[in-house]
Design brief:
Bact_solute-bd_prot1, alpha+beta, SBP, globular, five-stranded mixed beta sheet, Sugar ABC transporter substrate-binding protein, signal
C-alpha cells in the first residue's frame, strides 16, 4: 500500500488535457515535471507539449506539475506501482536516478539514445550523470536519463565597479588575484560568499579544480583511483582559501550567510565579483537594474563545477514508452533548445551563435567552453551520501579559523570510509 505522502503525489496539481489514466493504447501521454511555472524550463516544456500535440493530434496529454520534494521523496514507491507516468523529470545522481535504475524502476534508454542520436548532441562530461552502471553509479554504459540543459559555476562581474576603480578584468589566475588586491586596497571586499550554504564549498572545490586534471576528477567523483586529500589539489585549495580570508578578499563574517545573501551582496554592489551557478542568472537579470554586469568562465581553471542538468526518465512501468520517447525527442530539437537559451538557461544541444539574447549568449558560450574541453567536474558533495553537510561544516571550520590540515581530515574521513565500504 502507498504511503499517504505518495498518494498525495498522485493527485494532479496542474493538469492539461484531462485526468484520464494512460492504458497503453498509444493515445495518452502522462507527463510529470517540477519546474516553476514562469521559469525558462517550464516555458520550454510548455512549448514542447504544444509541439507534441501538433505532431500527435490523436494523443491526449495529461500533464501534472509536481514539486521537486514530492518526486524526490516518493519516486521509488510511485514508480513501483501501476500509477507511474510515461515520462517525468527526475534528479540526476547515484542516490536518485542511479538508485532507481539499480532497482529496475527505470527504462534502459541506450538503444533509443543511439537510434535518435541524442548522445551526439551533448559532450561526454555532460552525459556522465545520465549514464549508470549495474551498481547504480554514474558514468556507466547504460543511459537512464536524457538531460536537456546544463548547469555550471562561473564568474559574475560588476563591470561598473571595475571601471570606476580602474581594475582590469581578469584573464588568468594571476590577474584574478591582482584584481582582488586592487579592490581590497580601495577598501572593498571583492568576493561575495556564503558560508552557511553551498557557495563556500563550491569555492573550495573550484580552487582544487584549478590544480586538478581529468584523472583526479575521475578518482574523486567516480572512484577510479585513490584520492589523497592532503595531495597538491586540496592542499592548494585550503591554503589559498585561508590566505584569501586573511587578506580580506572574503569576509569571515560571511560564515553564517545563505546563498541569497551572497547574491544580495552582488546585486547591492557591495561585492564586485561573485562566483556562482548559472541558476542565479535569471534572478540577477531581473534584480539588477542600476549597473552593468557580465559573466565569464572562472579565470585560471580549465575545470569548473557543473554537469548535465536534471533529466527525463521513462519508468519501467510506463504504459506508453514510444510516446514518451517522441516527447523527449522534441525537447532535444533545435526549436526547444533555442528557446531554453533565449529564456536565460543553458541548452545542452544549442550553439551560442543561434541565440539572439546577448547576455544569454555570453552564458552559453562559457558553458560550451567547459563542455568542449571536458571541463565539467560535477559537485564536491556528490561522491558520498550526506557529504553535503560534511563540506558545509568543513568550510565553516576553515572560515572560523580552523587549521587547513584539520579541514582536510574532516573532508577525508567520510569519503575514505565510503570508498572502503564499496570493496
Amino acid at each position: 500500500m502507498l504511503a499517504a505522502s505518495a498518494l498525495a503525489l498522485l493527485a494532479p496539481l496542474t493538469a492539461c488535457g484531462g485526468s484520464d489514466t494512460a492504458e497503453g493504447d498509444g493515445k495518452t501521454l502522462r507527463l510529470w515535471h517540477y519546474e516553476q511555472q514562469d521559469g525558462a524550463l517550464s516555458k520550454a516544456w510548455d512549448a514542447a507539449i504544444t509541439e507534441f500535440k501538433r505532431t500527435h493530434p490523436d494523443v491526449k496529454v495529461v500533464f501534472e506539475r509536481k514539486t521537486f520534494e514530492q518526486i524526490q521523496q516518493n519516486a521509488g514507491m510511485i514508480l513501483n506501482s501501476d500509477k507511474a507516468p510515461d515520462v517525468m523529470e527526475y534528479n540526476k545522481g547515484n542516490a536518485t536516478t542511479g538508485l532507481l535504475a539499480k532497482q529496475g524502476l527505470l527504462t534502459d534508454l541506450t538503444p533509443v539514445v543511439e537510434e535518435r542520436g541524442w548522445d551526439k548532441k551533448m559532450s561526454e562530461s555532460a552525459s556522465v550523470t545520465a549514464r549508470y552502471d549495474d551498481k547504480g553509479e554514474m558514468g556507466g554504459d547504460k543511459w537512464y536519463g536524457i538531460p536537456n540543459y546544463g548547469e555550471f559555476v562561473l564568474t559574475y562581474y560588476n563591470d561598473d565597479l571595475f571601471k570606476k576603480h580602474n581594475v582590469a578584468k581578469p584573464t588568468d589566475f594571476k590577474s584574478f588575484e591582482a584584481a582582488l588586491a586592487e579592490f581590497k586596497a580601495a577598501g572593498i571586499t571583492p568576493l561575495a560568499n556564503a558560508g552557511n550554504d553551498h557557495p563556500a564549498g563550491h569555492w573550495l572545490y573550484l580552487l582544487a579544480l584549478s590544480r586538478a586534471n581529468d584523472t583526479w576528477v575521475d578518482d574523486y567523483q567516480l572512484y577510479m583511483g585513490k584520492v589523497d586529500f592532503h595531495g597538491p589539489e586540496m592542499t592548494f585549495a585550503v591554503n589559498k582559501y585561508e590566505e584569501w580570508l586573511d587578506k580580506g578578499y572574503f569576509d569571515k563574517k560571511d560564515v553564517g550567510l545563505k546563498g541569497n545573501d551572497m547574491t544580495e551582496q552582488f546585486v547591492s554592489q557591495k561585492r564586485p565579483i561573485m562566483v556562482g551557478g548559472n541558476w542565479w542568472f535569471g534572478s540577477l537579470t531581473t534584480d539588477i537594474e542600476n549597473f552593468s554586469w557580465s559573466t565569464a568562465p572562472f579565470p585560471g581553471s580549465e575545470k569548473t563545477l557543473g554537469s548535465g542538468g536534471n533529466h527525463w526518465v521513462i519508468p519501467t512501468k510506463a504504459k506508453n514508452k514510444k510516446l514518451a520517447e517522441d516527447f523527449i525527442d522534441i525537447t532535444m530539437s533545435d526549436k526547444i533548445q533555442k528557446l531554453i537559451g533565449e529564456q536565460g538557461n543553458v541548452p545542452i544541444a544549442a550553439q551560442a551563435d543561434t541565440i539572439t539574447n546577448p547576455r544569454a549568449k555570453e552564458l552559453i558560450t562559457a558553458f560550451d567552453t567547459y563542455q568542449s574541453n571536458n571541463g565539467l567536474a560535477f559537485y564536491p558533495d556528490w561522491p558520498v551520501t550526506g557529504y553535503y553537510d560534511t563540506w558545509l561544516a568543513a568550510t565553516q571550520n576553515l572560515m572560523n579559523g580552523g587549521k587547513p590540515d584539520t579541514v582536510l581530515d574532516e573532508l577525508a574521513a567520510p569519503y575514505d570510509k565510503y570508498v572502503a565500504s564499496r570493496s
